[in-house]
Amino acid sequence: MMNTALQAIATKALPALSGEEVTYNAAKNVFLTMGYTSAAGNMYYKAIRLSNRLMVYYDLGQGYAYTFLNGIKLFCFDEQKANLIAQKYWGGCDYCIFNEQFAKEQSILMLKGFLEGQLKLQGAHVSDQELACFARSMVEETQRKQLA
Amino acid sequence: MATLTKAINKSLFDSILPTYGNPRVHIPTWDNSQKMFICNEYESGNGHRYYLGIRFCDRIVVVEKVGLYHSWTYIDGIELYAFNGQKMELIQKRDYDKVFRDEAFIHRESEQMVKDFLTGVLKAQRICLPTEQIAAQATELINGCYKSFLAPDYNTRLTQILPKLEQR
Q1: How far apart are alpha carbons A38 and A90 in whole angstroms?
Q2: Within the 109-128 window of chain A, which residues sit less than 8 Å (CB to CB) from chain B?
Q3: With a threshold of 0.95, does the pTM exceed it?
Q4: Is A85 on the interface with B (CB under 8 A)?
């Protein structure tokens, strides 16, 4: 049931794609958009991982020698719609060469920040350790191979 | 007790980050990296996503109109609101065409808009103030809007304005 739901999300419900199709790269367990190639020959595309609770978008730029991480966006679900819950950008002087571990840790921090904000607005309190643990588990869930 | 706490926390997390198909609790989203609340999200038929980014202090509200188009984030407009009692009044508005969203740009534009507003009001009242003082006031107001909601001394009473902004 999990795989069927994720397949459905992947084919129909991935948000903010501007009409782009995605292909699934099984080796990296990631969905990739076709992207755009600039006049300078740099390619810009998205790499997406998802679970049944969270979608993690990496905005990537493929330069001559390096792959750059230009941004991370996190989406959650509200019934069958997606809500943007966190985003962070790099670029210019603050450039960031893509690294899976760094991107994962940033995603966890961003998700933790989102959760903290939601709890504060509700007047609820959860220990920092439990928040960090939950955020980590949610991001790691997106990295688990759940699709054939 | 630990089990009860765990169950309560699980229920909290499930309402904030539900599984696909389940409703989410209606609470504004605080984006800590951009130092703003995200609301009024909308996805067009072409798959472009639009939303409002809102940041404020106790005197002004800055509303960004943002569009996500393929791999790029555009700023479509900035609006400034001032308070009049418990109401908000639009005091400055700028629209942009094909301008990439950049934090420094938003900050500069917001400051300039506050400066323009203050200069206009002072001129109408025939009051003369040094431009440096107006600039300093504008900087202070805008910097106040970039305070993190997660900071312990953030005035959470201000978040009461969010539902009113969502209605616009």
Answers
A1: 18
A2: 110, 113-122, 124, 126
A3: no
A4: yes
